[in-house]
Amino acid sequence: MLNFEYQNPTKILFGKGQIEKIGQEIPSDARILIVYGGGSVIANGTMDMVRKALAGRNISEFGGIEPNPDYDTLMRAVELVKKARINYLLAVGGGSVIDGTKFISAASCWELGDPWEILRHQGKGIRTVIPFGCVLTLPATGSEMNHHAVISRKTRQITLPSASGSSEGSGVVSIHSRVDNEKLAFSSEKVFPQFAVLDPVVTFTLPKVQIANGITDAFCHVMEQYLTYPVHANLQDRFAESILLTLLDDGVKSYRQPENYDSRANLMWCATMALNGLIGAGVPQDWSTHAIGHELTALFGLAHAQTLAIVLPATMHVRRHEKKEKLLQYADRVWGIRGENPDEVIQQAISKTVAFFESIGLHSKLSAYNISADQLSEVSAKLLKHGMTGIGEHSSVTLEVCEEILNTAL
Ligand code: NZQ
Ligand code: ZN
């Protein structure tokens, strides 16, 4: 087992009715900003429960955080935080709202210039933040109990007038600045939520596609921390396999029976445990599937989980020699596949993984989204721009390997 340090400060309030308790978790004199997304939490009654639990408190609200939370939207929230002297944030929503809240929390206190630098430097330099808690409504990302966030920024052509103030057409050149479609992650110990409420009931209104995305995301979080090479971290391996097996069982039940409380509760806890640091402590980690996936989202607009269902099987295939021992362990312990011929066993395990994603409506090929070979160089260019030229547990996933993975996924 590798050396590790592990601390997770987030308090979990799990189960039916736990939203009632949030008032006890937030200082009574706090000026609170409730942050939410496109309105699902208003439609399904979660916001009413939150407002009721915080009745009589100093509350403002900021809605409109998009899936793949957008930098410009978040910066409008930062303005509000400063103007209203907010000193506590409460995220009510899925991973996008929680990630967005993490960014608002850090950017509101950022004193080192342009807050986009938080993303460009992966969170280094964050010193102080506004404390926050969350009410999770979508089991998927693990953001509710971790210190990561992923923020997007759409292409913008910014035209600044030249120093003389003349406009275009006058013969004086204006200054153009361009921000390309970006999706970047940051991490900081400062952005762990103080508490997270996980009430499976508020997730009953999720469309099936979001449940499938959540199962896939959690599954791939486990795989990024499990499918590497053995380091005799036996407990972590068993933890990881137990999450995968529970996702195959309760995850699928929850997909088929949206109001089955027990299955949804198991799916919800799986998703949290898949990325709260526990199973990744003391083991090598990959994360190349996510790195490639984020570029696919930024460039082509695929949902996060859609990218993972495409990249993971292709990664398993292209890197099958490097990952051979763990692939065989995965085949045996998760799928019960054994045999004389390791190549065949691995191939069957990959096929099972693809069939699982497809059984919950995910596609495993880029062509399903009309992405063709001639567009793949854009992905490589982005990975190069972001310094992702040697990723994975052995830093062996070069741009050439990424291209091979994407070509395999065509
Ligand atoms: O915007 P609203 O109206 O709230 O609707 C959302 C959104 O349209 C809807 N939804 C959420 N809860 C609902 C609901 N609809 C009905 N009933 C409910 N109870 O679901 C849609 C998707 O929500 P979103 O928050 O975008 O999904 P998810 O939780 O999958 O988050 C995805 C984001 O998290 C990032 C992804 O890259 C992506 O930006 N990730 C964050 C990670 C982290 N912080 O550790 C790790 C992950 O790998 C991932 O990268
Ligand atoms: Zn993910």
UniProtKB/TrEMBL annotation:
<dbReference type="GO" id="GO:0046872">
    <property type="term" value="F:metal ion binding"/>
</dbReference>
<dbReference type="GO" id="GO:1990002">
    <property type="term" value="F:methylglyoxal reductase (NADPH) (acetol producing) activity"/>
</dbReference>
<dbReference type="InterPro" id="IPR044731">
    <property type="entry name" value="BDH-like"/>
</dbReference>
<dbReference type="InterPro" id="IPR056798">
    <property type="entry name" value="ADH_Fe_C"/>
</dbReference>
<dbReference type="GO" id="GO:0005829">
    <property type="term" value="C:cytosol"/>
</dbReference>
<dbReference type="InterPro" id="IPR018211">
    <property type="entry name" value="ADH_Fe_CS"/>
</dbReference>
<feature type="domain" description="Alcohol dehydrogenase iron-type/glycerol dehydrogenase GldA">
    <location>
        <begin position="9"/>
        <end position="157"/>
    </location>
</feature>
<feature type="domain" description="Fe-containing alcohol dehydrogenase-like C-terminal">
    <location>
        <begin position="213"/>
        <end position="409"/>
    </location>
</feature>
<dbReference type="Pfam" id="PF00465">
    <property type="entry name" value="Fe-ADH"/>
</dbReference>
<dbReference type="Pfam" id="PF25137">
    <property type="entry name" value="ADH_Fe_C"/>
</dbReference>
<protein>
    <submittedName>
        <fullName>NADP-dependent alcohol dehydrogenase</fullName>
        <ecNumber>1.1.-.-</ecNumber>
    </submittedName>
</protein>
<dbReference type="InterPro" id="IPR001670">
    <property type="entry name" value="ADH_Fe/GldA"/>
</dbReference>
<dbReference type="GO" id="GO:0008106">
    <property type="term" value="F:alcohol dehydrogenase (NADP+) activity"/>
</dbReference>
<keyword id="KW-0560">Oxidoreductase</keyword>
<comment type="similarity">
    <text>Belongs to the iron-containing alcohol dehydrogenase family.</text>
</comment>
<dbReference type="GO" id="GO:1990362">
    <property type="term" value="F:butanol dehydrogenase (NAD+) activity"/>
</dbReference>
